[in-house]
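lol ok so funny story. i was supposed to be doing the assay writeup but got distracted and ended up predicting the structure for this chain instead. priorities right. anyway since i did it might as well share w the group, maybe its usefull for someone
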Amino acid sequence: MNTLSLLPVPSDLLFRPKLAGVVQHAGVYLGGGRVIENTPETGERLAALSEFAAGNPVRMERASQPLTAVLARAQRVLTVPKPWDAVSRNCEHTAYEVATGEARSPQLALILVLLALAGIILVANRD
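and the output, tada:
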């Protein structure tokens, strides 16, 4: 069963639910049914679109970068693939580096902000 309502185009950022929908797994569609992703089990690699989706709905974001730049960055990443690391090289770091040229993880940034706020609240409520 195809869980995509529309087919992605090369350079699209792809997202699917992970950990019961608490977080999103990210990758970049490269065409030919292939997605570049980064997982704890495999590190950075090419996967089939169906494997990336893992039976879940996939959300797509159109890339604003030229396809040639996205493919060149994907080739660089795959030439020397890095292992997955929750803080410094998770799936979003890989996907955003390939799609935009900037390795970043918005979900990680949000989690860190929430943890900092929780810490501030805990400290403020200690009397």
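Helices lie at 49-53, 67-79, 91-100, 106-124. The chain has one domain: 13-124.
back to the writeup now i swear
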